[in-house]
Specification:
Layout lengths: L1 E2 L5 E3 L36 E7 L13 E8 L4 E3 L3 E3 L3 E10 L5 E9 L8 E7 L5 E7 L13 E8 L8 E7 L8 E2 L5 E2 L2 E4 L2 H5 L5
Antiparallel strand pairs: 1-2, 1-3, 3-4, 5-7, 6-7, 6-13, 7-8, 8-11, 9-10, 9-12, 12-15, 13-14
Length: 213
């Protein structure tokens, strides 16, 4: 099931596991099975952050476990891309930051990380919008869709965030991660500096544009 930024279901696809070719009771423990579905989407999807959820149920429509969010993606205005090349000792690098806006003018931020080791802890991302004086305007703190302790070297993970946009010029994003005790991850960028946050200027063109669809 696909849900739009307002939490309304906009698409759904139901089908048998493995296209009906093999019943679940014939599966072998320890083996992975590829399955796929194609969703028919509406002709027009408003710009914003979408959530894809997966459920499994039996012939009596009884759920096998809880419905799970398996992906986020966004339909945005043209995004501004920044490649901070920030490394950490926590087990990953921040490869790319993308910033766009949705129909309501909210900021949509995507962080792409690449695992360099198996992180020892689960971390929570924070994405804060700061005004020109460094004061907090809005924020979206959330753990990655795949917990960091489950990341493996070489994998790339992309996580999306949505937060109200500042209205005044000179705003920037403050991006980072912290563990369960509140300890922040330290980033090192190519110029050799180290900090527990990444600062990304918000392109003023994003703040002055308000897409209609």
């Amino acid at each position: 099931q696909l849900f739009d930024p307002a939490g309304q279901r906009v698409a759904q696809k139901d089908g048998s596991l493995l296209w009906g070719g093999m019943a679940a009771y014939d599966w072998t423990r320890g083996l992975a099975y590829y399955d796929g579905f194609a969703l028919d989407l509406p002709a027009l999807l408003p710009k914003g952050l979408y959530e894809l959820r997966l459920s499994v149920y039996d012939a009596q429509q009884r759920l096998a476990g809880q419905q799970r969010t398996i992906a986020h993606f966004a339909s945005t205005s043209p995004a501004v891309e920044v490649r901070p090349q920030a490394t950490t000792a926590a087990g990953w690098n921040v490869e790319q930051v993308e910033v766009g806006v949705d129909t309501a003018g909210r900021l949509l931020v995507a962080l792409t990380s690449k695992a360099t080791a198996i992180p020892a802890k689960d971390y929570t991302w924070f994405v804060h919008a700061l005004d020109s004086k460094g004061a907090l305007v809005s924020q979206d703190d959330r753990p990655p869709l795949v917990p960091t302790s489950g990341w493996r070297p070489g994998e790339e993970h992309k996580d999306w965030f949505s937060l109200p946009a500042p209205s005044a010029p000179g705003a920037e994003l403050e991006i980072g991660a912290y563990d369960a005790a509140g300890g922040r991850v330290v980033f090192q960028i190519p110029n050799g500096s180290r900090n527990d946050r990444l600062l990304v200027p918000i392109d003023q063109r994003l703040l002055t544009s308000r897409p209609n669809s």
